[in-house]
Amino acid sequence: MGILVLSLLVTITSGCGETEEEKQFHQELLDKALNDDTKKAGAQFLQDNAKRDGVEVTDSGLQYEVLQAADGPKPGILNRVRVSYTGWTVNGEQFESSVGAEENPVFPIRDVIKGWREALLQMSPGARWKIYLPSELGYGARSPGGMVPANSALIFEIELLEILPQEKADQ
């Protein structure tokens, strides 16, 4: 009987039998619980930010300011785009930037975080926006690492430099 109890205890504590998906789900729940203050701070920031002049709020909760307007074609979901961007946490800490990079990055729109996707689909080349993302439109209950905790609201300044040709649907 003691061996059975010990075996069961080892199985439970080591996570044996959990799929990678289950392990990720449990980790996300843990992250969410541990970072509840992060979620609250982001929600407060966004609530205050939405009241500022020039800030637009979409149905999804995306907030944006048009820093530089541009006319022209807008990308589709299958396009790749070349952008220049900088990202900050709501406490003002920069966590990522392509500004000054030798070559500006290219992203498939369908593969970027939800908030970026929503914004980029409304922008034309030459447009520069500052976007404010609730955690659900960013990385959610996951932390992408580094200075960005799980449940973080995020700020990005994005300039759409170029729309590249659509990818084939089967890629």
Short structural description:
The chain is an alpha+beta fold and 171 residues long. The protein has helices at residues 2-14, 20-34, 36-49, 114-120, and strands at residues 56-57, 63-68, 80-89, 94-97, 106-108, 128-133, 154-164.
Question: Could you characterize what this model shows?
Answer:
Strand 1 and strand 2 form a beta hairpin. The protein has helices spanning 2-14, 20-34, 36-49, 114-120, and strands at 56-57, 63-68, 80-89, 94-97, 106-108, 128-133, 154-164. It starts with a helix and ends in a 7-residue tail after the last strand. The longest helix has 15 residues, at 20-34. The chain has one domain: Roll (Chitinase A, domain 3). Strands 1, 2, 3, 4, 5, 6 and 7 form a 7-stranded antiparallel β-sheet that branches. It has 171 residues and is of the alpha+beta class.
Features:
single chain; 171 residues; alpha+beta; Chitinase A, domain 3; seven-stranded antiparallel β-sheet; 25% strand; disordered N terminus
Fold blueprint:
Blueprint: H1 2-14, H2 20-34, H3 36-49, E1 56-57, E2 63-68, E3 80-89, E4 94-97, E5 106-108, H4 114-120, E6 128-133, E7 154-164
Antiparallel strand pairs: 1-2, 2-6, 3-4, 3-5, 3-7, 6-7
**Can you write the helix and strand succession as a string?**
HHHEEEEEHEE
CATH architecture descriptor name? Roll
* Residue share in β-strands: 15-25%
Total number of helical segments?
4
Q: Which structural class is indicated by helix and strand composition?
A: alpha+beta
The end-to-end span amounts to 55 Å
- CATH-derived topology: Chitinase A, domain 3
Number of β-strand runs = 7
Please compute the radius of gyration using only Cα atoms: 20 Å
Helix content: 25-40%
Mean pLDDT: 86
Q: Largest sheet at a glance?
A: 7 strands, antiparallel
Structurally, how many domains make up the residues?
1
